[in-house]
Amino acid sequence: MARKQTAIESIHGMNGRIKKKHIALQQQSATSHWASTDSICQLCLRPIPTTQRDAHHLVPKSRGGVDTVILHRLCHRQIHALLTETQLARDYFTIEALRNHPELAKFIQWISRKPTHIRAAIKRSRDKGYL
Ligand SMILES: [Zn+2]
Ligand SMILES: [Zn+2]
Question: Where are the alpha helices (DSSP H) in 1-131?
Answer without folding.
Answer: 2-37, 73-82, 85-90, 95-100, 102-112, 117-130
